[in-house]
## 1
Amino acid sequence: MNENEPRLLILGAHPDDAEFHGGGLAAIYRQLDRPVKLVSVTDGAAGHHERSPAELIPLRRTEAAAAGAVIGATYETWDFPDGGLEPTLDVRHRIIREIREFRPDLVLTHRTCDYHPDHRSVGQCVQDASYMVTVPHVVPDVPALRKDPVVAYLPDLFTRPAPMRADVIVDVSEHMQSIAKMLACHRSQVFEWLAYEADILETVPDDESKKLAWVQSWAAGHIRLRANRLRDELVIRYGDVRGRELEFIEMFEISEYARQTDAESIRQLFPNALASQS
């Protein structure tokens, strides 16, 4: 791992959030031998219809570690309560400490408008930490950074109070298999809880050899919605042919509360980002 290369930190609310929303960019970073760390701020204890929280916490930690190993990334699961996360000082300070210790050049997280209160809480805490990472008297046991990282929001399709602004678009078609392999490691979620929530449990194959193909199809169906939502914008940016053929993308909105970007920093931080048609 090249420690001189740009470093990526993804702060998600739950185990599997990082790879579902930003797994393509994470895979690209690791392909380039860049340091990547994935974090679940909560313990994942609430995400099941049958398994108990006591069973889920160690299980989801193990699943997350296996998912990170698919691309050679570190994956941590913290101990804040799943389903009960609030944007408290404790959470903010833990995030400040993580950003200072890992020293990322790019942080990805949820927007503060999202269906899940845990997602909103993580997004708010990252926003609140973005400047504070440079303030020495805040969390003084860890040296403050001289400059804050760039913060960008992970893809979502929510429209209230405002739809996501796609400042950067990355074609992740070549990395869909890696995304699916990472998601398949979260067996208690993808094959059980999320399938239960979507009322498609009966479609999950019993044959283990067929489960990866099922995840690939499931993930493709969700990720394809991003390009479909942005289709008109993609055509304007990249021309009729390229704009219509794009199928699997990750789009990112740059936070105005952290370090700002220019064309050169976008090229460095978002490898394979699509350039607009000139």
## 2
Amino acid sequence: MSDVVLKITDLHAHYGQIHALRGINLEVRAGQIVTLLGANGAGKSTTMKCISGLLKPTGGKIEFMGESIFGVAAHEIVKKGLIQVPEGRKIFKGMTIQENLELGSFTLKDDAERKKRMEHVYELFPVLGERRHRDSGMLSGGEQQMLAIGRALMVNQKLVLLDEPSMGLAPFLVKNIMKVIKRLNEEGITILLVEQNAKMALNIADYGYVVETGEIVMHDDGDVLKKDERIINAYLGE
């Protein structure tokens, strides 16, 4: 059996007349952290939305665990084990931390498994455990990002899509979030990471793709991209 978890071939997407994705090709293998880098408006989040079923592509193929998910409804894709942590957190304010996590486990039928997963989230993010009965709307940006990641861990995930997890966070919080992403990967979770913070992303990624105006313009091992002059000049500011 192939170890390719996600395979995208010649993916196209439009917003009205705007041709947002122009033939994206990428793959994610089991156990990897793969990062998708690019400037604002390059097509990173559009790619994520197509994968998770939030936007219907206009051409190409999307295969998850060897099965086509092109045009499949978002909630059905979640049931297959492909989970997205969206840009901007999208937590449910007015509900407690615990209620947010319980909502994230909607595909789980086993209460014991739900409890086990929740305790794992609280072990990863102790601050969430301490405040589990607090309204999630009262959390800081960093805590909300922890909750959004925690919510994704409440189901049987085969692939987690992380869309701009460092956005709007202080540098020390970004480091903490990246450490958690690395730890989750070491626990066996395969990750596709969209990041504007290229330096942080390439420090933890096994492989990287660079997208510009809806096209992949470069891809290689994370360590190779980190040393590439074009990447340094365009994204790393060194």
